[in-house]
Amino acid sequence: MITAALEEREHYLNASYGLKSWLLTKDHKRIALLYLGTITLFFALGGLFATMIRIELLTPQPDLVSSETYNKLFTMHGVIMVFLFLVPSIPATLGNFFLPIMIGAKDLAFPKLNLLSWYLLVAGGLCTLGAMFAGGVDTGWTFYTPYSSTYSNTYVIATALGIFIAGFSSILTGLNFIVTVHRMRAPGMTWFRLPLFVWSNYATSLIMVLGTPVLAVTILLVGCERLFHIGIFDPALGGDPVLFQHMFWFYSHPAVYIMVLPGMGVVSELVATFSRKRVFGYGFVAFSSVAIAVLGFLVWGHHLFVSGQSVYAGMVFSFLSYFVAVPSAIKVFNWTATLYKGSISYDTPMLYAFGFIGLFTMGGLTGLFLAALGIDVHVTDTYFVVAHFHYIMVGGTLMAYLGGMHYWWPKMTGRMYPEGWAKLSALVVFLGFNLTFFPQFVLGYLGMPRRYHVYPPEFQVLHVMSTAGASVLAVGYLMPLVYFLWSLRYGKLAPANPWGATGLEWQTSSPPPTHNFEEPPVVTHEAYDFAALLEEAQVG
Amino acid sequence: MSEHIDSIKTYTLIFLALLALTFITSTVAYIDLGPLNIVVALVIAVTKMLLVALFFMHVRYSTKLTKIVVAGGLLWLAILLLLTMADFVSRGWLAGT
Amino acid sequence: MASANPLALREQFDTAAQQKDASVLAMWIFLVTEIMFFGGLFLAYTAYRSFYPEVFGAASRTLSATIGAVNTAVLLTSSYTMVLAVRAAQKGSRKALIWFLILTMIFGTVFLGVKAYEWHEKFVEHHVPGPSFHLEGEPLQGQAQLFFSLYFAMTGLHALHMVVGMGIMTVMTWRAWLGRFNADYYTPIDVAGLYWHFVDVIWIFLFPLLYLIDRHVPK
Predict the structure, then answer these.
(1) What DSSP letter does each residue of A369-408 carry, written as one string?
(2) How many angstroms away from the CA of C95 is the closest CA of chain B?
(3) pLDDT tens per residue, chain A (540 residues)?
(4) Taking CB atoms and an 8 Å cutoff, what residues of chain B touch C84?
(5) Is C3 contained in some domain?
(6) Exposed (0-12), middle (13-18) or buried (19+): which is A207, by Cβ within 10 Å?
(7) Any idea what DSSP says for residue C56?
(8) Per the structure, how many domains does chain C have?
(9) C1 part of a folded domain
(10) Which domain holds residue C182?
(11) Closest chain B residue to C34 measured between Cα atoms?
C-alpha cells in the first residue's frame, strides 16, 4: 500500500505494522480507518438488499422472491443502512479522524473507549448479520409492536440485540466527542473559532447521548416481551403498542439528525474551501446545528399521525415539526450566500456539496408536506415517504459523506485520486439518485404503498425508471471504490494542503504523524480566514 | 485544582436529613391526601435527589458545565415524559369519547 | 485500567487538571444517558399508571412498604459511607478510604439481599409475570401483571446497576489497597462515587413510585 517515497517520513500509517498494531490501536486516525472498512462492508451489504428489492419491483408480479423474503429484504436493508451504516458513517470515520486534528488535539479524550466503540459496532453488526444468516427478520426496521413482540416468528431478538450493542457504540462515540470538544481544544481554539464540522459533530453527539439510551431500553422491553410475554406493549394484557412508537421515535426521529447533521458540517467545510470565503453567518450556521439537535427532540409524534395518537397531540407535533425547518433553511441560505461573490472552483468535493444542497432542499421541503397532518394522512406509508427520507439520507448524508471522503482522502492517505473519474462519479451519482427516487415521489402520491412487492400494472413505468436509476447509482458508488483503492498505489503524492484550505488539518503533513502535529498548534485566527492563510504563505 | 472538602459534620447532617425524609414520606403515604399524595411523595423524592446531587455528588461546587449537563439530562427526561403523556392524556378529549 | 504509575498523565492530555476534568465530565454525561435509559421505564410506568390507577394501586399495596423503607435507609447509608470514602481519598487517607469502600460494599450487599428476599416472595405469591401469575381479588389480571412487569424491569435494572457498582467498588478497593491513590490523584474514586450516588438517586424515585403513592387507600 505504501511506496518508498512515503516511507521516508514517519506518519500514522507506517508508525507500526501488523494486524495487532491495527486491532489494538488507540490512534483515532487508525480507528477511523477501521470504521471506514467496516461501514463500507455494511453499505455494500445494505446495497445488495436494495438491489434485490429494486429488481423484484421491476414487474407488478412477485417473480424474484416470495412475500416473506421480500419483507425480510426491506427489513435488513433498513436495519443495516440505518443502524450500521448511516448512524456511524460520517462521525465515526471522518469525525473520528478529523475532529481531534481540527481542534488541535493529540487524540480524542478517551482513545481506549474509542476503540471499544468500534468493537461494539462490529459485535452489534455480527449479531445482526448472524440473525440474517439464520433466517432474517421481517418486522421492518421500525420493529413496531405487537407484530415484533408477539406475532413475528423471525429472528427479532438477535437483530434487536445487535442494534442494542451498536447503540452503545454510538453513545460512547458521542460521549467521547463531547468531552473532547470541551476539554481538548488547542490554545487559542475558542468555541467561535471551531470549524463548522466540529460544531455539527458536537450537536450530533448531543443527540447520540440523549436519544440512544431510550432506544436501548425500548429494544430491551421488546426483547423481554418476546422472551417472557410480560405484556408491556401487548394490548391483550392492557399494554399500548403506541407507547412503543413514542419511545422508538423519541430516538429514531432525532436519529435522522444524527445522520444528516454531520453531513451538513462537511458541506460547510466544502463550501467555504471551494469558494475561498468564510462561511456567511458563521454564528448562525454553528447555532443552527445545536438548534436542530434540540428541536429534533420535540417532533417525533409526526410519525404517529395515523397510529391512534390523540388528534390534539398530533396537532402539537405537526406545529412543532415546522420549527425544524427554520435552522435547516438557515443553513441552506447561508451556504448559498457564501457562494455569492466567492472564488468558486469546481473540484469533485464541491460537486458533491452542490448535490447535497439541492437534494437536501428537496428532501427537506417534502418533509414539510409530511409534517402537515392532512397531507400526511394521504401519503402515510407510501413511496412519497420513502422518497422523502431517501432524499435526506442518501441524497443528503451519502452525498456529503462522499464529498467529505474526496475532500479529505489526500489527507488520510497521502494520495490524490484521479480528478476526471471522480468528477464523472459525482455526476453519475447525482443523476442516478434522482432517476431512482424522483419517480418514487410520484408513485407515492398516486398511492403506491411502501413495503409491498406486488402492485397495480399502471405503476410499472415509474418502478422501471426507479430500478434503472438504481443501476446507474450502483455504478456511481462502485467508481469511487475502484479509484480510491487504485490511488493508494498509483495516485499522485498529496501535498499537505492540496485545496488551499484553512483549518488545522491542512497545516500538518499528509498523512499526519501519529500525534497529529509536529509542534502543538496555537490558534490565532478564526475559522475560514483565507486572508490570513494567504499572508502566511507569502511570509513563508 | 482547588478542591472543596466538606466536613464530616455536613455529610452527617445531610445523611440524617435523608433518613428523616425517608421516614416522613413513608408515614405520610398512609394518610389520605387525595391527589396530593403523589405530589408530596414526588416533592420529597426531588428534595432527596437534590440533597444527594448537591452535597454527595458535589454539584454545589461543580463547574457551570456540570450543572448544565445535569439540568440538560433532567430537561430531556421531562420532554420524553411530557410530550408522550400529552398524547395519552388528550386521547379521550375527542367528541366526548 | 491500572497504569504502572498512577500519576502518569495519559499521553493525549496536557495537564492533570485537564485529565481529571475530562473524566468527571465523561461520567456526568454517562449519567445523563442513564437518566434517559431509566427514563423510558419511568415513562412506561407513568403511562400505564395513568391508564389503570386502581389496578396499579392494588398491585402496589401488595409490596411491603416497611421493607422498602428499610432498604431505602440501607442504600442511603451506603451513599453516606461512599461520600466519606471520597472525602478520605481527598484527604489522602488510604486506610479510611479502604474501610469506607468496604462499608459501602457491605451496605450494597445488604440492599441486594433484601431485594432478593422481596423477589423471592413474589415467586412464592405468584406475582411474577408469566403463565402462573395471579393477583388475588383482581378482575384485571393482565393489567396487574403489567405493574409487576414494570416492577421487575425497574428494580431488576436498578439491581443490575448495583451489581456493576459493587464490581467497580471491588476494583477501587483493590487499587486503594495497592496505594494507587493519594490527595493529588483520586479521580477514579470520585467518578465511582458519582456512579454510586446516581444509582441511589434512581432508587429514591423507585421507592415512592412503586411502594408508596397508593398506600393511603384502605385495604
Answers:
(1) HHHSHHHHHHHTTBHHHHHHHHIIIIIIIIHHHHHHHHHH
(2) 16
(3) 444 454 568 899 999 999 999 999 999 999 999 999 999 999 999 999 999 999 999 999 999 999 999 999 999 999 999 999 999 999 999 999 999 999 999 999 999 999 999 999 999 999 999 999 999 999 999 999 999 998 999 999 999 999 999 999 999 999 999 999 999 999 999 999 999 999 999 999 999 999 999 999 999 999 999 998 888 999 988 999 999 999 999 999 999 999 999 999 999 999 999 999 999 999 999 999 999 999 999 999 999 999 989 999 999 999 999 999 999 999 999 999 999 999 999 999 999 999 999 999 999 999 999 999 999 999 999 999 999 999 999 999 999 999 999 999 999 999 999 999 999 999 999 999 999 999 999 999 999 999 999 999 999 999 999 999 999 999 999 999 999 999 999 999 999 999 999 999 999 999 999 999 998 899 999 999 998 888 877 775
(4) 8, 11
(5) no
(6) buried
(7) H
(8) 1
(9) no
(10) 16-212
(11) B73
Among candidates A111, A121, A133, which has minimal Cα distance to A29?
A: A111
Chain C touched by B88 (CB under 8 Å): yes
CB A255 within 8 Å of CB A87: yes
The complex scores an ipTM of 0.94
Within 8 A of C130 by CB-CB distance, chain A residues are: 228-230
Distance between start and end Cα atoms, chain B: 62
Task: Show which residues on chain A lie within 8 Å of chain C, measured between beta carbons.
Answer: 105-111, 171, 175-176, 178-179, 182-184, 209-214, 216-218, 221, 224, 228-232, 236-240, 243, 246-247, 515
Phi, psi of A133, rounded to the nearest 5 degrees: -70, -30
Query: What does the pLDDT look like over C28-81, one tens digit per residue?
Result: 999 999 999 999 999 999 999 999 999 999 999 999 999 999 999 999 999 999
Residue contacts between A and C (CB atoms, under 8 Å): 113
Let me know if residue C69 belongs to a domain: yes
CATH code assigned at C115: 1.20.120.80
Domain boundary assignment for chain A: 4-539
Q: Which of C33, C47, C145 lies nearest to residue A171, judging by beta carbons?
A: C33
A323: exposed, middle or buried (Cβ count in 10 Å: 0-12, 13-18, 19+): middle
Question: How far apart are the C-alpha atoms of A148 and A141, rounded to whole Å?
Answer: 10
Contact present, A306 and A379 (Cβ < 8 Å): no
Is A4-539 a CATH 1.20.210.10 domain? yes
Those residues whose C-beta lies under 8 Å from the C-beta of residue A133, and which sit 6 or more positions away, are none
In a domain, C144, yes or no: yes
Interchain contact A301–B (C-beta under 8 A):
yes
Query: Are A109 and C12 within 8 A, CB to CB?
Result: yes
Closest approach of A378 to chain B, Cα-based (Å): 21
Chains in contact with B via at least 3 Cβ–Cβ pairs below 8 Å: A, C
Nearest-CB residue to A213 (from C36, C55, C130): C36
| Cell triple for A482 | 475502484
Tell which residue, A140, A304, A156, has the closest CA to residue A225: A156
Q: What is the 3-state secondary structure (H, E, C) of A35-51?
A: HHHHHHHHHHHHHHHHH
Enumerate the domain spans of chain B.
Answer: 1-57, 62-90
Q: Could you tell me how many residues make up chain C?
A: 219
- Enumerate residues 40 to 69 of chain C having a beta carbon within 8 A of any beta carbon in chain A: 40-41, 43-44, 47-48, 51-52, 55
Record: contact B76-A297, CB cut-off 8 A: yes
CB A83 within 8 A of CB A65: no
Q: CA A98, CA A91: separation in Å to the nearest integer?
A: 9
